[in-house]
UniProtKB/TrEMBL annotation:
One of its GO terms (biological process) is xylan catabolic process. It comes from Streptomyces coelicoflavus. Its EC number is 3.2.1.8. It is an enzyme of class 3 (hydrolase). One of its GO terms (molecular function) is endo-1,4-beta-xylanase activity. This is Beta-xylanase. Gene3D superfamilies: 2.60.40.290, Glycosidases.
Length: 451
């Protein structure tokens, strides 16, 4: 699918994304009481890894949309997901994440172009000449599909061994193409999308050690020779056996001093309570202390879907309640949560703020109709609300006003644009235009959630 067709398709599917401008306005209008808005106040992004198959879960999507300003597809842009057979590209799942992010005004990080893992079997069966061609074609095909839409790409991922040698990792690329494959990948990537930031990404490089020294020397060499590299990603997976290094900030700074941005790309910290909160604070403060640390990404929205779920490493628990680590990160970013609410801002389980949503059809014609949803606060004032509208399968929304929408299939989730704050008993609302496409049935309005 060409870029032009993809963009037109996305606009048609989201229909209402005349609301993209409303989304950006809503993000900027919020107080710094979410991770994304607080980080923006520090000139940085705060992102999360996203799995396409969880976007249909209301609490997952609501937490993602409320809190984060950047997304990284967890698996959907990897080689096995995007080119399972040679030359046979498929982007359905990755497109779903990119479309969702763009409907919410979020940036997207691309992950990852060249990696030794999650490769389809055909890649390892190629000889050197074919492998070089396939690598470059994969970079051009994947980046070309998203040209102009991805903020940063992890061009090469995890190319160095663990341990004290600082050697390159054995992989089809290293073994058959030699040390030059990383440089070649970066040069191909620059040509494929000159506007995207190009990153090298790895783990166990968070402190000064043999592995980080090897990466440092490679980046220094690249910068000296004009090889196009813009950023270095530090995965920052921590636990009691691999704690935050004492020289974490100094290590980030020495890479920044080479003239590249640094990004914390896959952050998670196993633990709980105040100890976990303190570790997260240390990481955030390190990034804020380094001018070229442009942002942080936690590797998942909720503990229950983490790749390390047994270690409860994320900021939201399995019920999407904010953990002490969330409050610590928000505070470190200069955010302003409600000190009387230990769960933090926007907690869906708060129970004190309530609202109702009622639907009315306000205009009707042969091919379409206008609908209005009225939001009314309960017995307590509210600072924000969320309502869902489920459309009959045939129908589609062509416009929406006075709200910030996101669309998942035929379920539209709407949040305030300018009208989130309501006194007790007060009302506001949003309207929308629907194309009937042969169905005159009424939409279903779900429960209103307030904070």
């Amino acid at each position: 699918m060409s870029m032009t067709v993809r963009r037109l398709s996305r606009a048609a599917t989201a229909g209402l994304v005349a609301a993209a401008a409303l989304t950006a306005a809503a993000h900027s209008a919020e107080a710094a009481d979410t991770l994304g808005s607080a980080a923006a106040g520090q000139g940085r992004y705060f992102g999360t890894a996203v799995a396409a198959n969880h976007l249909g879960e209301a609490d997952y999507a609501a937490t993602l949309d409320r809190e984060f300003s950047s997304v990284t597809p967890e698996n959907e842009m990897k080689w096995d997901a995007t080119e399972p057979s040679r030359g046979g590209f498929t982007f359905t799942s990755a497109d779903r994440i990119v479309d969702h992010a763009q409907s919410q005004g979020m940036d997207v990080r691309g992950h990852t172009l060249v990696w030794h893992s999650q490769l389809p079997s055909w890649v390892g069966q190629l000889g050197a000449s074919d492998l070089r061609t396939a690598m470059n074609d994969h970079i051009k095909g994947l980046m070309g599909h998203y040209k102009g839409e991805i903020h940063s790409w992890d061009v090469v991922n995890e190319a160095f061994q663990d341990g004290g040698s600082g050697a390159r990792r054995s992989s089809p690329f290293q073994d058959k193409l030699g040390d030059g494959f990383i440089e070649e990948a970066f040069r191909t990537a620059r040509a494929a999308d000159p506007a995207a930031k190009l990153c090298y990404n790895d783990y166990n490089t968070d402190g000064v050690n043999a592995k980080s020294n090897a990466v440092y020397n490679m980046v220094k060499d690249f910068k000296s020779r004009g090889v196009p590299i813009d950023c270095v990603g530090f995965q920052s997976h921590f636990n009691s056996n691999s704690p935050v290094p004492s020289d974490y900030r100094q290590n980030l700074q020495r890479f920044a001093d080479l003239g590249v941005d640094v990004q914390i790309t896959e952050l998670d910290i196993e633990g709980s309570g105040s100890a976990q909160a303190a570790d997260y604070t240390e990481v955030v403060e390190a990034c804020l202390a380094v001018d070229r640390c442009t942002g942080m990404t936690v590797w998942g929205v909720t503990d229950k879907y983490s790749w390390r779920s047994g270690g409860t490493p994320l900021l939201f628990d399995g019920n999407y309640d904010e953990k002490p680590a969330y409050d610590a990160v928000l505070s470190a970013l200069g955010g302003s949560g409600d000190p009387g609410d230990p769960d933090g801002p926007g907690d869906p389980g708060d129970g004190t703020a309530t609202c109702t949503a009622t639907y009315t059809r306000t205009a009707d014609w042969n091919s379409g109709y206008n609908g209005q949803v009225t939001i009314t606060a309960g017995s307590e004032p509210i600072s924000s609300w969320t309502a869902t509208v489920t459309l009959p399968a045939q129908q589609s929304v062509s416009a929406l006003w006075n709200g910030t929408p996101s669309l998942n299939g035929n379920v539209m989730t709407v949040r305030p644009s300018w009208n989130g704050t309501l006194a007790a008993g007060a009302s506001t609302g949003f309207g929308f235009t629907v194309a009937k496409n042969g169905s005159d049935a009424a939409p279903t309005v779900g429960t209103c959630t307030a904070s």
